[in-house]
Amino acid sequence: MMRVLFAGTPEFAVEHLQGLIEHPDIDVVAVVTQPDRPGKRGKKLIASPVKHRALMAGLTVLQPTRLQAKHLAGFAFDLLIVVAYGQILKPAVLALPRIGPINVHASLLPRWRGAAPVQRAILAGDQTSGVTIMKMAEGLDTGPIISVRSCAIDTNETSDSLFSKLACLGQEALLHAVETIARTGLVADPQPAAGVTYAHKILKAEAKIDWSMSSALISRHIRAFVPDPVAFTTQGETRFRCYGAEVASSELNCAAPTPEPGTILERSKTGIRVQCGDGQLYITQLQSPTGKGTIVQGADLKNLQTALLDPGERFE
After folding, report:
1. Which pick of 6, 18, 82, 156 has the fewest CB atoms within 10 Å?
2. Domain that includes residue 92, residue range
3. Where is the domain boundary, 199, 233, 266?
């Protein structure tokens, strides 16, 4: 029986924890997750998705503000498994497991080391992503690689859909890695020196759409920021949050002179067609700033009762 201590926080980590819980030859001795945080509305503290799942399974949950070796002193475990925990672990913590600490990272290392590999891959227009199982080291996602699994990034992929895809892929890869370690020990190869890129943390300011960019870049921008922080555009003090987009056919780009970027050209069932710095874009899903903030699309988008989206108006 492989004794595992699991550290993770968001929904992406839940699928991995679930697989470990259900495996007949794995014993999850405890779960470490981030402290409860205030919700977006009000001051009520919200537990992490990993905490919810761990408590449902009757597991011991630890939530230190900063994880230290002393917090794990009462546990004996073979592997420390880390999946999107949200803290850089100290060497003293990494040294605790009998066999070693391993991590599931949502990219094909060494590409996109860091905090936001899924969003950065979509923003960059990558056609392939995947998960890397690695032995943890002191550097930022620099540890030697145990195994890699890849998948395609679809043309309409959002960060939300890619996270879901990679969570399933990561669970399979993690369980296979743990089974292999139980049979043959932990074997890992150094990461390649070439191809290193960094996935810096997403800032909320990045979510604002720059209409001077090309339609292809703006489409990726919108898809990369679903579900969070959500791309937005403005008219004066009014903010519109964009959840879906598609590049308009090049046949539509025939107006002369070319309208100023951000100009609304059409309202249709397809979406709100907007002029970009190069090409045009349909906003296909939009959160209205009025009413209850419902996300509208299709005919509802065409018939939305606001003159702000009429042809000739302009997003800033």
Report:
1. 156
2. 2-199
3. 199
Assigned domain for 59 exists: yes
SS3 for 141-199 is: CCCCEEEEEEEECCCCCCHHHHHHHHHHHHHHHHHHHHHHHHHHCCCCECCCCCCCCEE
Q: Angle, to 10 degrees, between the axis of helix 11-22 and the axis of helix 159-184? A: 30
> Per-residue b/e over 83-96, b at no fewer than 16 CB within 10 Å?
bbbeeebeeebbeb
The structural domain count of the chain equals: 2
Whether residue 249 sits in one domain with residue 195: no
Angle of helix 11-22 versus helix 49-56 axis, rounded to 10: 20
Same domain, 19 and 146: yes
Q: Which amino acid is at 125?
A: G
CATH number for position 291: 3.10.25.10
Query: 80 is written with which tokens?
Result: 């420390």
Tell which of 166, 199, 232 closes a domain. 199
Are 16 and 150 part of one and the same domain?
A: yes
